[in-house]
Amino acid sequence: MSAGITVRPFTDEHKSQVRELFISVTRLLCSPNLRDAFEAYIMWSLAEEIDRIPAYYSEKGGGFWVALEGDCLVGMFGLEQVTNDAMELRRMYVDARARRRGIARQMLQFAEDECRRLKVFKLELSTSELQSAALALYRNAGYRLVREEFAETPSNKTVGSGLLRYYFEKHL
Question: Judging by DSSP bridges, how do beta strands 122-128 and 144-151 pair with one another?
Answer without folding.
Answer: unpaired
